[in-house]
Amino acid sequence: MAWWSELESGLAAAEAEGQRRRLRTLETANVPVVRLDGKELLQFASNNYLGLATHPRVVAASQAAAARWGTGSGASSLVTGHQGIHAELEDVLAKSKGAEAALVYAAGSLANLGCLSALPGEDGQVFLDKLDHATLYDGAKLSGAAVDRFPHQDLNRLAAQMKRSRAAGIHRIVVAVDAVYSMDGDLAPLPQLLELAQRYDAVLVVDEAHSTGILGAQGHGLLEHFKIRSWPECLVLTGTLSKALGSLGGYVAGSRVLVEHLVNRSRGYIYATALPGPCAAAALEALRVIEEEPQHLARLRQNCGVLAQGLTGLGWGPQDAVTPIFPLVVGPADAALALQSRLSEAGIFVPAIRPPTVPAGSCRLRLSVTAAHGDAELAAVLTALGAKP
Ligand SMILES: *Cc1c(COP(=O)(O)O)cnc(C)c1O
Fold first, then answer.
1. At which of 232, 258, 292 does a domain end?
2. Which atom of ligand 1 lies closest to the CA of 241?
3. Statement to judge: residues 165 and 263 lie in one domain
4. Mutate to test the pocket of ligand 1, among 240, 245, 353 (most ligand atoms within 8 A of CB)
5. SS3 155
6. What is the pLDDT of residue 317?
7. Which domain does 358 fall in, by range?
8. Domain presence at residue 308
9. For the whole model, what pTM was predicted?
10. Per residue in 107-141, pLDDT tens?
């Protein structure tokens, strides 16, 4: 069929530009030393930042939940899929975030799609940071609202855009940002963003995929990091259960009326089977482990410090130790792939990231560290990388 041969040439063209991606198969859990396509490798590629995906308490909670709630939830939440374990998780998530209420989705990506698509309405306006996660952008597009992106972290530009929208009489303005940018590791300037949202009567959506469990004294996220103690009325948080919480699933946290609105209007919520109980239970137990065993976050922070200092010393910086994401920017796609293969020959896997995930010319290795990495493993990656050429 002509269709398939056209797709084939598209793939060949991507191959020629060093842009074709291929799946690799992991034969182990997502731990520091993995077996990947038959080869044992020390990996710095995971978002299982606290190592909780294999924590005995988290695994046991998930097993017990499979026995109690079944392996699948059997229906969408509004039909019969909303089980006691979901209600309990929503309660704990809301408390952890300091929000009035929370709603659990079957994935973080669905939470973003389902939240953004249901917020502004067709006559609204969404502003997104250029480096926002793709699912925020896709959700905004699905809403039918006007969608504009501002240059990364350029709040002056954002303020000018918001002012123009208000002057044009646009009633509903949504600003959506990542709490931690997934490929760069920098933070959203929450206090300034809240100030802008309040000034222009906008809703601020913050995607906490890489900050939940990581930022703040106790890992509660971006609000705790900035020591904001009372819930800002204009704020909506989205996030995932699949990174530091070691499970799968997503959530939105905010006001009770927001959550009620999503239950009634969010297609990503209404038309998806509810998260399986074992996933909900794993995330719930992970949240408890984070409260009761602060050593995991402490160890992660120690590892971040070692890498930030080591990488900066080797010329791969400046890098800071605030998040476990370290971008090693090399520029062209082939340079990123070459560095990835050089490390792979040394037995280390750090993934090359290319367009469209990052802008062309800013290809990089995205090195992420977890609490499960040991001192010798950190030393090994620094030695293998060596000084930046
Ligand atoms: C991973 C990620 C998501 C999607 O979450 P899933 O649970 O994997 O679907 C959303 N936003 C950001 C910033 C992410 O990194």
1. 292
2. 7
3. yes
4. 240
5. helix
6. 87
7. 20-49+294-385
8. yes
9. 0.97
10. 999 999 999 999 999 999 999 999 999 999 999 99
